[in-house]
Amino acid sequence: MSNIIPDDVAFMERAKSLGLSAHLVIATRVLRVRMYRGLRETFAGWSRYMLSGANNNILVVFLEVIYALSFNMLPFLFPLFIGRYPTSAVLLALSSLLIIIIRFRVNRLLGTAGGWALTHPIGSLLLAFIALNSFWRRITGQGVRWKGRIYREKERSIFWTGKEYRLEK
């Protein structure tokens, strides 16, 4: 499974195909995991997941960018609409408030400080940049780089939607 990203999802799929029971649980009271250290590692790590999470479909990744910007960023721009479009500004402000409330609750559920919900627009912008990076690396044939390895789709169309990458060391 070393040529499949994300390998944890492939592991779960394999277990299920063998008829084994597999479950996703929230275990924040039992263990703690730190995925990445720093922005650079976070950017690289999520860039590798972005395409595979979209089943290597660049159209889906492009739609993720549109979604991140329109539904997760636009509401927070409500102050720009106050003077000219007051009704739209109110609707966007309410959407922003709802997003923050939901993020606050999810953060608390996951054992993260609720105040981090206020960084949602920044995280959404970062997600859009990560998706664009994955999109760019795919269409230019650069592949996904992770821990000294490059996973790429040599001799495959940019519209390839498989799971197994060709691993280069």
Please, could you describe this protein's structure?
By secondary structure, the protein is mainly alpha-helical. It has one domain (7-168). The protein has five helices and three strands, in the order αααααβββ. A three-stranded antiparallel sheet has the order 1-2-3. α2 (39-53) packs across α5 (120-139) and α3 runs antiparallel to α5. It is globular and about 55 Å long. The model has no long low-confidence stretch (mean pLDDT 82).
Keywords:
mainly alpha; 169 residues; globular; three-stranded antiparallel sheet; 6% strand
Low-confidence stretches: none
Give the tally of β-strands: 3
The percentage of residues in β strands lies in: 5-15%
Helix content: 40-55%
Number of domains: 1
Radius of gyration based on Cα positions: 19 Å
Write down the secondary-structure element order: HHHHHEEE
Mean model confidence by pLDDT: 82
Outline of the structure:
This protein has 169 residues and is mainly alpha-helical. It has helices at 7-17, 39-53, 58-72, 86-109, 120-139; strands spanning 144-146, 149-152, 166-168.
Furnish the topology, listing elements before pairings.
Blueprint: H1 7-17, H2 39-53, H3 58-72, H4 86-109, H5 120-139, E1 144-146, E2 149-152, E3 166-168
Antiparallel strand pairs: 1-2, 2-3
Helix pairs in contact: 2-5, 3-5
